[in-house]
Amino acid sequence: MEPPQGSAAGGRKRRRRGGARNRRKASSSSQQAPPLASAPPPPSSPPAKRRRKDGAGQAAATPKRGITSSKLDQMRARLSAGHFRMLNQTLYTCSGQDAFDYFKENPNYFDVYHAGYQEQMSRWPEQPVNIIINWLKSHNASWTVADFGCGNAAVAKNVDNKVFSIDLVSDDPSVIACDMAHTPLKTSSVDVAIFCLSLMGTNYPSYLEEANRVLKPSGWLVIAEVRSRLDPNNGGADPEKFSKAIIQLGFSLVSKDAKNKMFILFYFRKKVSFCYINHPNGSAFTLNSVAYHDPAGKE
């Protein structure tokens, strides 16, 4: 049986419509696609990064990714600062003998500590050691000085006085390495004892007792301390109580310099002992008498 005429015609119409669509597609594709010969060959390696043009029209080098030298320097600085803080905390929370033993076993840590210390000091507008050096220069050059916690021995290097430089570790033959509570200095042998930011450790009062032992009568005790340690509002010690405690050791407070925002300077003087032999009851006794109250801090 032959298919109906309408069906065949409809099929032919569909084929014509489909063919027209195919012809239109082929025609539009041939108009849009570039000739085969002009197509670029496939790359044999990854394409090069684009280069930016600078103001002169030249290609500027693309910056390399990764850690630059400045970033490395910043990382080293942060690491060094972290080591310094750790060692600084250790010195504040252990005894002088423990600190001496610790640095004796790890002398390179002492170098790390002092490198961090110098970095911190470089940010201060004024350094207390320089004030103390100038104070010594304005006094008697024949005085003998004991610099407790001398660091790089800046005092000895900048004054004409005879200076015993004392610290926990020594890589300099002129520095005495010891626990500062037990120095080899003779009793009543020095005129000035200095603690420049060095009253550290759980037994720091014993350092002051040692300074009292080696000082001559009327000798000077000069202390520079970080202001934050003497701020009771922020957990520090009361500066008045601190002074009274030292006075009880046998000193008088001559002057205090608190004008610097980073540290406070104290100038104490050792009291003089008088011995009276002819006491009415026939026994000798010692009377501690405050002497040499000179507001200017001079002889």
UniProtKB/TrEMBL annotation:
Q: Which GO terms describe its molecular function?
A: methyltransferase activity
Question: What InterPro entries does this protein's entry cite?
Answer: RRP8, RRP8_N, SAM-dependent_MTases_sf
Q: Name one GO biological process term.
A: chromatin organization
Task: Point to the regions of Low complexity compositional bias.
Answer: 27-36
User: What protein name applies here?
Assistant: Ribosomal RNA-processing protein 8
Has keyword Kinase? no
Q: Which UniProt keywords apply?
A: Chromatin regulator, Methyltransferase, Nucleus, Repressor, rRNA processing, S-adenosyl-L-methionine, Transcription, Transcription regulation, Transferase
Q: Which organism is it from?
A: Urochloa decumbens
What family does the entry list? Belongs to the methyltransferase superfamily. RRP8 family.
User: Where are the residues of the annotated region Disordered?
Assistant: 1-72
Localisation per UniProt entry:
Nucleus, Nucleolus
Function in brief: Probable methyltransferase required to silence rDNA.
Q: Which GO terms describe its cellular component?
A: nucleolus
- EC number(s) stated in the UniProt entry for this protein: 2.1.1.-
Enumerate composition-biased segments (Basic residues): 11-26
- What class does this enzyme belong to in the EC scheme? transferase
Annotated SUPFAM superfamilies: S-adenosyl-L-methionine-dependent methyltransferases
